[in-house]
Amino acid sequence: MRAFLMLVLGMILGAAAIVVGVYFYFATGQAPVATSAFPMPFEKKLAHWALNATVGREMPKTVPLQPDDANLAAGAQIYREHCAVCHGLPEQKPTLIAAGMYPRPPKLLEGKGVTDDEPGESYWKVANGIRLTGMPGFRPRLSETQMWQVSLLVANADKLPKSVHDNLSVPMVTDEKAVPTK
Question: What sections of 37-110 are H helices per DSSP?
Answer without folding.
Answer: 43-58, 69-82, 84-87, 96-99
